[in-house]
Amino acid sequence: MRKLKLDELNRVSVPEFKAQEKLPVAVVLDSVRSMHNVGSVFRTCDGFAVEQICLCGITGQPPHREIEKTALGATQSVGWTYYADPLEAVAYLRNEGYIIIAIEQAENSIMLNSFEPEDGKKYALIFGNEVNGVTDDVMKNIDYCIEIPQFGTKHSFNIVVSAGIVLWDFYCKLVVEGS
Ligand SMILES: C[S@@+](CC[C@H](N)C(=O)[O-])C[C@H]1O[C@@H](n2cnc3c(N)ncnc32)[C@H](O)[C@@H]1O
């Protein structure tokens, strides 16, 4: 098979991206330490046309050389805001009508395959720090916790991998199956 050339991928421009319909999802990064992880989340959110990213706590902010290494320009397409306190981001998103969901391993979590997002609703998906996960105060202020099942020896996925898995799942359930 012949691989497609860049000009055959038919990607939208940044202004076209800003104007296009979005997946009704906001991604919240709760003190993600690695700038490379932050940049990769931007690139992943661009790929799934996520509405916005809320960067919280110690999460780095663009412009930053290390973020750009992995974002590859996606910091220009996906809109973002910064909140020192992740609870401020949660309050803002709740007020905007988002259902607040921690993506985390927790008691009474719902497995990703069992969660059915509803058409017409908006979802804020909160991802946590590489060591400590989503902060405890945030875990007390969520509507749901979604966990990705794992079958191997490691405790958790890398945060960016977990974002890719969950966003693809939401895209399939809200857009592919919903159409
Ligand atoms: C490396 S993990 C953090 C692991 C940490 N030991 C903890 O206590 O949560 C970083 C982030 O990735 C996401 N994550 C990783 N694996 C996950 C899984 N199996 N289910 C849900 N979220 C996961 C969560 O958002 C988590 O906060």
What does this structure look like?
The chain has seven helices and seven strands. Helix 2 links the parallel strand 1 (23-30) and strand 2 (50-56). Strands 3-2-1-6-4-7-5 form a seven-stranded parallel β-sheet, sandwiched between helices. The chain has helices spanning 14-19, 35-47, 65-71, 74-77, 86-95, 136-139, 159-176; strands at 23-30, 50-56, 79-83, 98-103, 110-111, 122-127, 144-147. The mean pLDDT is 97. Helix 2 packs parallel to helix 7. By secondary structure, it is an alpha/beta fold. It is 35% helix and 21% strand. The longest helix is centred in the C-terminal third of the chain and has 18 residues, at 159-176. The structure holds S-adenosylmethionine.
The mean pLDDT is 97
Number of strands: 7
Give the overall shape, derived from the CA principal axes.
globular
Report the structural category: alpha/beta
Which ligands appear in the coordinates?
A: S-adenosylmethionine
Outline the low-pLDDT stretches.
Answer: none
The proportion of strand residues reads 15-25%
Strand arrangement, major sheet: 3-2-1-6-4-7-5
Report, as a whole number of angstroms, the end-to-end distance.
30 Å
Biggest β-sheet: count, sense, barrel? 7 strands, parallel
Assembly state here? single chain
| H-E string | HEHEHHEHEEEHEH
**Rounded Rg:** 16 Å
How many H/I helices? 7
